[in-house]
Design goal:
Layout lengths: L9 H4 L19 E5 L4 H13 L5 E6 L19 E5 L5 H10 L4 E4 L6 H6 L1 H22 L3 E7 L24 H20 L3 E6 L12 H10 L14
Parallel strand pairs: 1-2, 1-4, 2-3, 4-5, 5-6
Helix pairs in contact: 3-5, 5-6
Amino acid sequence: MLNPRSYITPELWTQAPILKGTTKFEPLADARNIMVAGGARFTACWFVRHLTLTYPIDYNAVSFDKLDYCATLNNTWILEKCPNFAFEHGDITSPNDVKRCSRKNKIDTIFHFAAKSYVDLSFGNSYQFTNTNVYGTHVLLERARAHGIKRFVYISTDEVYGDVPADADDLSETSLLAPTNPYSASKAAIEMMVNAYRKSFKLPVITVHSNNVYGPHQFQEKIIPKFALLLQRRSRLLVHRDGTPT
């Protein structure tokens, strides 16, 4: 197994500001040890940083990640000396890895950010999207059920609703799921599994339909950092279809 510490380049952090966000709510009495699946990736690393730095005595944040191509410990390197932060190297498709993490850290809450999430890659590598996204989530749900997790928050995407007309005004959480690519199809399948565990096992699940997210530490395959880099190089920008989508 690769040593996850080998990914660290701490000299970069000496040049980086400590950004954590400003939102703060009253701590929850029934949440203490929070496992963040996919915690070394872009979106989740911001959540991990916010939990760790904003709630130093209220929450313990456990970043769980297998460190694939778009994840790096540089994203949470600044937290290494925080007593309420821990990193666990593991894969959501491995029941043993998930079980080890949840038992070792006495996890009571799971935030599930982990997923293969780039639409273009899903066209040529759809099997891995199904395996990681659908099976991996099933592993997390089953562990949550068996372990007695008190809260399971699944980070989904608005793409499960498919192509929505610009003038649509009736889109809501109860709208029909109509995915149009392998990535969004895998995320929609996950929602079916999540709903099944909510109904069958009374698992306390919350689903979040996030829209496009961008900012510092984002991997360069995503459209905004990709276009920013291309513009810096005075390169052409490729827009799918006829350029009318907004």
